[in-house]
Amino acid sequence: MAVLAASIFTKTGKPVISRQFKEISRGSVDSLLSAFTKLWTGGTQSGSQHTLIEDGNSRYLYQPTGDVYVVLVTSKSSNIMQDISSLRLFSQVVTQTCRNCTEQEVLDNAFELFAAFDEIIALGYRENVTLNQVRTFLAMESHEEKIHEIIARNKELEASEERKRRAKQLEIQRRELAKQKAMTARTSMASMSHHQPQYIPVRGPEVETTSGGTDFDEFDSHSQLLSGQSSFSGRPTGGSGKKGMSLGSKKTRAL
Question: Does the residue 204 lie in any domain?
Fold first, then answer.
């Protein structure tokens, strides 16, 4: 009736990725995948060419693709012919997306595979699409994604330019504020220097002596008088014409 999940397994039975198409819990999906691993690796199906395993109310359809297996989990009431066609389309999508179909390559392209799986199955039912249509839808989604990336990048650039513009405005405002503060400081200093009192030295009155001169003139005349007396007293007295007695003259004549 419906496709429950589409999964990719390694050849050893290890689940790599899984996409569920119905509202089922994670625990239910894990139990379905573990049941397939036990049935496929533990029974006679592991060495046979069968691509169908049934267990309880579930049916597992699988197909080898490169180094992995593509597995569809459906209900037993589902149309098996339609499920086989869906499995073949899933395998083609995996081959187109992953060239070598290795485990690491599947993990690297997981999101692309999920997008392709969603184009094939919607709400558990097969969509009437072909491989070319799936490619077209994926290309359109990729184009739309690029457009969204361009729009997001442009928004980031606009936001960056806006931040730069605001930073420039803040820098201009900061400079203007600094200029205003400097002008205010100079104005206050000029006003303080204008109101500061100026001190002018005042010379005292000169004291006059009795002779009409100043004290300095009297001091100069007194100094000249003293210098004249000293020069007069040091001058030798002449006029007597007497010579001094020469010592040792008699002793010289006796010799």
Answer: no
